[in-house]
Automatic annotation (TrEMBL):
Protein name: Tyrosine recombinase XerD
Complex formation: Forms a cyclic heterotetrameric complex composed of two molecules of XerC and two molecules of XerD.
Broad class of where this protein is predominantly found: cytoplasm
GO MF terms, alphabetically ordered: DNA binding; tyrosine-based site-specific recombinase activity
Gene3D superfamilies per the UniProt record, alphabetical: 1.10.150.130, Intergrase catalytic core
Lineage, top ranks: Bacteria, Pseudomonadati, Pseudomonadota, Alphaproteobacteria, Rhodospirillales
Length: 306
């Protein structure tokens, strides 16, 4: 057994004896560390002699090979634990992994709904009886027309729609106010809902909120809003996990960009302080275009068959 292999086996024995690691975990560590040792050996280095630059070179090799950042981060975790062990055992006088940054995971692309999915949800909400259907339709129309955060939506003051507003004045994070235009459909839904709004209050009671409830907050809760959407998704034959207030906020932004809106305007309507937060939606569009070409372009189909 080579020197590197012996060090790895001692480390794995420790994991098994002291941490009760499973067989699958042991095998995963063995594969990751063996791969690292193989990379070192190609550069005439070993686990005992490797430095921080050797670990960085290995991570660069993984990136060049197209390995996902999450998988590379797992490999680095195994390397760190190995060197922590070797340092504690006196096999090394230093730990070269302490100065290595983890691979950037990247921001996951947001879940989105298609325009057809949104139309399906709205049609189902409109088909419900009063007053629940009118309230749900109003919530959906405002959310899809404005991209509000769910906390902003459920706490909207009645004064915000006292007349027939063409825009909403929304107080968002940090107390910052922004103006968000409303569609005609959203304005009509607000007017229809206001005719039955009193039914969500005890007889004779008043409330400063557009969506009052008997909750401790005095308005519809975020949790209840989420439940209403899950129930609606099931009725529409959509996966309940694919529909939430935040997913509708994503749909608002993505569909606007789909139809030619500029990124800065979408940023302002979403209330993002930094445009880099809004730019995630351009990545969504890029992924959708890539999928469209892969699945429907005749040349792409021909290449797939070849």
């Amino acid at each position: 057994m080579s020197g590197d292999a012996a060090l790895v086996e001692r480390f794995l024995e420790m994991l098994l004896a002291e941490r009760g690691a499973s067989v699958n975990t042991i095998e995963a560590y063995r594969r990751d560390l063996t791969d690292f040792a193989t990379s070192l050996r190609a550069r005439k280095r070993s686990l005992e002699s490797a430095g921080s630059d050797d670990i960085r070179t290995y991570l660069s090799e993984l990136e060049a090979a197209g390995m996902a950042p999450r998988t590379a981060a797992r490999r680095l975790s195994a390397i760190r634990q190995l060197y922590r062990f070797l340092f504690s055992e006196g096999d090394r006088t230093d730990d070269p992994s302490t100065v290595i940054d983890s691979p950037r995971q990247g921001r996951p692309l947001p879940k989105i709904l298609s325009e057809d999915d949104v139309d399906l949800l709205l049609a189902s909400a409109r088909g419900k009886g009063e007053p629940e259907g009118l309230r749900l339709t109003c919530l959906l129309e405002i959310l899809y027309a404005s991209g509000l955060r769910v906390s902003e939506l459920v706490a909207l003051p009645l004064a915000a729609v006292a007349r027939d507003p063409r825009v909403l004045i929304v107080r968002g994070k940090g107390g910052k106010e922004r103006m968000v235009p409303l569609t005609e459909a959203a304005r009509e839904a607000i007017i229809a809902y206001k005719n039955v709004r009193q039914s969500f209050l005890p007889e004779g009671a008043t409330s400063p909120f557009l969506f009052p409830s008997r909750s401790s907050e005095g308005h519809l809760t975020r949790r209840r809003m989420g439940q209403l959407l899950k129930e609606l998704a099931i009725e529409c034959g959509l996966r309940p996990g694919s529909v939430s207030p935040h997913v509708l906020r994503h749909a608002f932004a993505t569909h606007l960009l789909d139809h030619g809106a500029d990124l800065r305007s979408v940023q302002q309507m979403l209330g993002h302080a930094d445009i880099s937060t809004t730019q995630i939606y351009t990545h969504v569009l890029a992924e959708r275009l890539k999928t469209l070409v892969t699945e429907h372009h005749p040349l792409a189909k021909g290449m797939a068959k070849a």
